[in-house]
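Lab notebook, bench 4. The sequencing result for the construct came back, and we need a structural model before the next group meeting so we can plan mutations. Quick request posted to the team channel:

Model the 3D structure of this chain.
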Amino acid sequence: MDRVLFRLADDRFCFVQLNGVLDTWLLAHKRDFDIHVADPQSHVLQI
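Done. Here's the predicted structure in token form:
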């Protein structure tokens, strides 16, 4: 499955990835950016 980035608002995004620990990678590399990383535990359905 391809990764998908949704723009929910001017300053809010939702990044969807099928498998992996992307949230851990993002937290490790966020540096000085003002971001919040969360895992909503949602499921993806691709048709």
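The longest strand covers residues 4-9.
Will bring this to the meeting.
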